[in-house]
User: What shape does this take?
Amino acid sequence: MASPPFPIDIEILRTDDTRYGSEWSGLRLNDAYNRLYVVIEGEAEVEVNDEIVVLEQGCSYLFPHTIRFAYRCSTYFWLLNVCFEMRGQSHIDLLSVQPYRRQVRPLDMQLVTEKMRKIHATSEKLTFAARLEASGNLLQLLAAHFTDDGAETLVNKKRDLQRLKPSLEYIHANIEKKLLIGDLCSMANMSRQYYSKIFKETLYTSPQEYVRYERINRAKKMLRNSRTKIATISDDLGYASPAYFTREFKALTGTVPKLFRQDLQLI
Assistant: This one.
């Protein structure tokens, strides 16, 4: 059986245990985190990259990074939710390379509910033990969503990831710099054309777009985890000006940095 690109690094960003009505409605663009939903009661609907998914009572749902995520509830539903990042070697999001099931109907819904509530209760505690417990419970819940289907494809992806690894690590270590595709190709010992082909087949995006999104993702973390001035973040990440940073941020997220910092609620 093929194994995922270990080690696994998990960061829980937000948890939720809420009963919603018709106020649960909105649109989010380019969210760089994963979602695990467990629907306790009722029904709602999400639109994931133009695909409509009905959220049914008694099911859990796993959603990866999304370009477009619309959500709505017409009457009532009760949602347990964990927003998290899960990355393997070279900072690769594991849901981009590992086969998974979007919807699962757990055999023991009571056990799933208990684990989700434990995550909710422990994820914001600062102790190492509490964070370890929350991550452990999340991993147990995620296991039901992963499958061994497509093992051969996964082996090929892991091989290609190993070849891309030096350039990916360089990108993440130097995201604030002007990154030249020619330099990245040389690190992977590939021609520019072949590097772009392997990159797109493995990560479903071009090297240029990958750098663009990762730079904005780094900005999001800085906005979320610090009080650093927006102009300073712009400069630290190598943008030509705060105005250009704001335009780029809005183009990829649908909002501006100032409003993003004011409204950090993750759905």
The first helix runs from residue 109 to 122. Strands lie at 9-20, 25-31, 34-42, 44-48, 51-55, 60-63, 66-72, 77-87, 103-104. The chain is about 45% helix and 25% strand.
